[in-house]
Fold this sequence. Notes:
The chain contains 10 helices and 2 strands. With 196 residues, it is an all-alpha fold. The two termini are 22 Å apart. The model has no long low-confidence stretch (mean pLDDT 87).
Amino acid sequence: MLTIFKPAAEKALKPVAHLLRNVDPNIISLTGVIFPALFVWFVIEGWYAAALVMIPLTALDTVDGMVARTQGKVTAFGGFLDSTIDRFADFAVLVAFGFAEIVPWGVVLPVVLLSYLISYIRSRTELAAKGTITASVGIVERTERLIAVFVALLLYTIFPDFVLWDYDLATWVFVLLGVFSAITVGQRIAFAYRNL
Length: 196
C-alpha cells in the first residue's frame, strides 16, 4: 500500500547510496542482518529507545538496490539475497516481541506465518506468470509491517501499563496487523486466481 511512496523514499536515500557507490551491493545486503538482530537484543534487554532506532535502519535495505543500479550490477542473485535477508528481518522484528514477553506467542506466531504467506504468494504468483505480472497487491506489505512494529513498540514504551481487555497496546497492534495481513493474503490469492 505504501509502495507509492517508494520513489520519494529512494530520492531521500540517494545521498546514502552515493556514499556507498563503491561498495559491493551484496555486501550492503548482508549488513541488513545487523539491524534486525540488534532490534531483537535491544527489545529483550528492555532498551526500547535503541530498538526503535533500529526499525528505520532495517528499512534502509532499499539502498543495496540503488547502489546495484548505479554500478550496473543488478543481478538475479542480488535480488534473491535481498529478499532472503528481508525474510530474516521480518522474522526477527516480529519474534522479538514474543521473546521479550510483550506480545503473547499465540498472537505473534500467526502474524509471522501471515507475513511469510504474503511474501510467498507474491513470489509464487510472479513465478507462475513467468514475470509477466507484479503481484504486490494488498494493504499490508513489508513497509506497513515495519511501521506497525515501530508503533507497537512506541506505544508499549509510552504506555507500558495500559491494558484493554487483558491486552497491552502492543498486542492490540499485533492483532490488527494480523487481521490486515490475513486480508492481504486473501487479496493476493484472489489476484492470483484472476490473473493465472
